[in-house]
Amino acid sequence: MPIRIPDALPAVDVLRSENIFVMPESKAMHQDIRPLKVLILNLMPKKIETETQLMRLLSNTPLQVDVELVRVDARASKNTPKEHLDEFYQDFDRVKSQKWDGFIITGAPLGTVPFEDVYYWDKFVEIVEWSKHNVTSTLFLCWAAQAALNVIYGLKKQSHEQKHSGVFEHQTFNQQHPLVRGFDDFFQAPLSRYAKFCPEQIAAQTDLNIFANSAEAGVYLAATTDCRQVYITGHPEYDFDTLHDEYVRDQNEGLAPKLPINYYPNDDETQTPRASWRSHGNLLYSNWLNYCVYQQTPYDLDQLGRTE
């Protein structure tokens, strides 16, 4: 949230020089405030688990946020009760006539599947194109980040032979930017993906700013200059045991997964893993909501996209 202080206070110029958002009293007195409208397209198999994780992060801010859950269609889910989907989810086609402050598109367990073989690929493309003109800022997570890079920039799918699973160290860049305000120089973040995110390729073939990168796992956080599109290639929303559950799942499916990196104490899978990324995840979502959504979105959402 912005700090509200008297217009003439000397601290105003100092704080602004440090790229801290200051709202003078004269502006605050005339500011209209309303709840933010955030749409979540949940593509993960365990939808209840994922929606809970995301809403936990979205709630860590003084801003009032109205959340709407959507799916690509009414197709049955193997991991989520039909009753839950019918009660709490809408099909995308029922909300696309509206404007939204923020939009989150989750990952999906499709790392080894060619884009054109994803049954809802055409719908996904439609949704990404729709978001450009109907959403103030869209957050793409993991598989959705790779897929959106293909839709928007034409980046071809690149994959590792083995899944990058575990907790990886990332370096922060451009720390004066609001999206990474308060980040440490290096931070931990959980990854669970086959996708490659090569910094050289992204720098050469897109107009994105790279804000975090892992020497071992590639780009973690990137965004357009106006933050209309933000790409996160990992899962800051994960609970402490989510990577464990995925590891056990892959074992049961006969995939012979490698032990998640830097995850279990002493690399002993019988020990309880500890989350080392919660503070980073909360800060990232708070920064996104505040600086990329709240500070940028028009009060009247019907005005969104009219100048484009």
TrEMBL record:
Instruction: Identify the residues that bind substrate.
Output: 163, 192, 249
SUPFAM superfamilies attached here?
Answer: Class I glutamine amidotransferase-like
CDD domains per UniProt: GATase1_HTS
Active-site positions on this chain = 142 (acyl-thioester intermediate), 235 (proton acceptor), 237
Q: Where is this site: Important for acyl-CoA specificity?
A: 111
Q: Please state where this protein is localized.
A: Cytoplasm
Superkingdom field:
Bacteria
Q: Which UniProt keywords apply?
A: Acyltransferase, Amino-acid biosynthesis, Cytoplasm, Methionine biosynthesis, Transferase
Q: Gene3D superfamilies of this UniProt entry?
A: 3.40.50.880
User: Part of which pathway?
Assistant: Amino-acid biosynthesis; L-methionine biosynthesis via de novo pathway; O-succinyl-L-homoserine from L-homoserine: step 1/1
Q: Name one GO molecular function term.
A: homoserine O-succinyltransferase activity
Q: What class of enzyme is it?
A: transferase
Q: What is its main location?
A: cytoplasm
Q: Which Pfam families match?
A: HTS (PF04204)
Its EC number is 2.3.1.46
Q: Hey, where's the site called Important for substrate specificity on this chain?
A: 192
Q: Which reaction does it catalyse?
A: L-homoserine + succinyl-CoA = O-succinyl-L-homoserine + CoA
What NCBIfam families does the annotation carry?
A: metA (TIGR01001)
Homology family: Belongs to the MetA family.
Q: What does this protein do?
A: Transfers a succinyl group from succinyl-CoA to L-homoserine, forming succinyl-L-homoserine.
Cite the PANTHER family for this sequence: HOMOSERINE O-SUCCINYLTRANSFERASE (PTHR20919:SF0)
Protein's name in the database: Homoserine O-succinyltransferase
- Gene coding for it: metA
